[in-house]
Write the structure tokens for this entry.
Amino acid sequence: MILFNKPFGVLPQFTDRGTVSPRPTLSDFIDIPGVYPAGRLDRDSEGLMVLTDDGRLQARIADPRHRLAKTYLVQVEGLPEDAALERLRAGVLLNDGPTRPAQARRIDPPALWPRDPPVRFRISVPDQWLELTIHEGRNRQVRRMTAAIGHPTLRLIRQSVGPWALDGLEAGRWRRAEIPEGLAPRSRS
């Protein structure tokens, strides 16, 4: 099992099919045969990706039925009031239905690696960092949730997936990790 800190702009797959000019992919950073992402992380998002060579474990991590917590550091435009955070905590109605309740809180700006390219700031519009934990994994869900409360996402970093966390892993780097006993798929007898 591999934990990878995906930089901004890197595709969450090993190949880039169908583009004239190739974009960076996981293969530019990870040269280990037979590992595949357990879940996705958008090209314009950063942070933790879990990769494994065990297909059943990959499915268990990625499947929203297992409700594996995913925690994100989210820089949003504007200053969300308590009512906006309560909407996240209660579940937000998106075009594909309501989300499950999330944990949401304001945080101080985290110490992070620089993003390339940097986030575009507007002097007249303040921003706020949030820590948001969800238990599902819809397409661009966190971005759609913050937009639904009127605070578009400026920068999105996945901090943890279940028991695994970035814990000082630098952008573009990976390390091996153990599979906790409770997550290891049961063998078929």
